[in-house]
Amino acid sequence: MSEPDTGPEFYAGRPRPWRPNDLVNGGGSGVGRAAYGVPSGGVAVWPNASETVPPETLGGLVREFSKAAAEIAVEFGKGCRDIVRQSLGNRDSVLGRSLGKVRESYLGKRVTQLRRKLGIVNEYLPEDKDPIHAWSVIACVTILAFAVVYVNVETTPSGPAPEVKKIYIHPPSAARVMLPDGRFIAYKEQGVPADRARFSIIAPHSFLSSRLAGIPGLKASLLEEFGVRLLTYDLPGFGESDPHPNRNLESSAMDMLLLADAVGVNDKFWVVGYSSGGLHAWAALRYIPDRLAGAAMFAPMVNPYDSFMNREERRRTWEKWTRSRKFMYFLARRFPSFLSYFYHRSFLSGKHGQIDRWLSLSLGKRDKALMEDPIYEEFWQRDVEESIRQGNAKPFVEEAVLQVSNWGFSLADLKLQKKERGKGVVNWLKAMLTSQEELIGFLGPIHIWQGMDDKVVPPSMTDFVHRILPGAAVHKLPYEGHFTYIYFCDECHRQIFTALFGTPQGPLNFTTEVDQSPLEGTEEQEEEESPLEGTEEQEEEEARGDSVLAPSEA
């Protein structure tokens, strides 16, 4: 059979089969390409064609493959949907029978009637939108909008807006020490000097506070009277202290220990924990108990998600808090990165505000009255300015997360109890040779002061602590709130120091008075020695006289 005529004249005016030489960058001579309408430039031009065919690139191939894969995925999803509808949506299926029973019930009939009445609303939806999908999106957006409005309503003042004051960042003024890891920690010292201190106290500050807080309003005369040296410091990232790269409660206790060694606290010291600063006091009791003489807690914060807390204690605690605060605790536990947004809208906004609105706190009457005091307002504003000096939200997020996360220990670890004996011959021999049983836990005293009208750290938290640590001395304060007992109360401060240190004895006194009695005794001895010396001289003269008289007598 003869080969058909395949020249250019044969395919004039009709389509021609594809050949390898038709590739734009394919092989073949330039003469053959030009003969079939492929110029040497690289773009194929078919005879009698008005459009050019662009060459295919790698990006185009990838896009086409992606489109094909997407179409396959969509078809696969539709197939799965059809399978689910046929298997579960059928009336004979388990789900269909269950839904049929629900539809036949009274509630199901009411829901069906309501759907019919509301069906007219579907007319306002776009024609190309599925009503089920559209209404689900509308419901989600509505719930989210109500949640945002719900939070903002509680944080928005109901009365007239107060005068807005801008935050002023003061020049650095803190004394700082360098820790072994190269970080600097800022501290403040009050009271008697180190060499005269009868008692030493170290106080970590609470959330949104600084080293300037300490025990607010504590007078220097009271520290002098009891011989107390008070040290306060900025937590990592607060005030003038450098941040910690891997901060936790154990590192917080180590920072406290290193600070004590750096500033010359050689003996045991007391730790004071107020509100959320109690977290760091609990950590010190757990990780450095040998360096502590005792602990003084004021409305100490514990983990509201603690597994040892029973249902009643948890209910009494959470019911005292506002919905906004509960929401913030939820974010700190589940989505801590979102806290930065709220912090930048409140205390990191560069403007002063009120602590109850910033931190979503519910306060009692006495606490609200204290906040209106100009002395407290001035103290609070200066403390906040120092706390947010670095303008970074990270240390505040870390502090919030520490409150609600796993501490690495429980309060039960601090309970004073007998150490369980291990099994084995070696442990049995140790038990036989040692007469005293080894104790574990914190051996020193723990004092807790709790206001019964406190809504920031409810009394139920202290009840929980006392149940876990029955050896702690709890001082319940009727009608006192979260701030009123420790802030600017001279009589309260005296009661606290008396409970901790007993009768005031003043600072240590190492000066010695010159004793004159040895000098008087020396003079008397000299006077007594002089007559003796005269008697001896007389005896010698008499002896010489006797020797002279002796020959004449002979």
UniProtKB/TrEMBL annotation:
Residues 521-543 have a biased composition (Acidic residues). Signal peptide: none annotated. Residues 218-486 form the AB hydrolase-1 domain. Pfam families: Abhydrolase_1. InterPro entries: AB_hydrolase_1, AB_hydrolase_fold. Coiled coil: none annotated. It comes from the Eukaryota. SUPFAM superfamilies: alpha/beta-Hydrolases (SSF53474). Residues 508-554 are annotated as: Disordered. This is AB hydrolase-1 domain-containing protein.
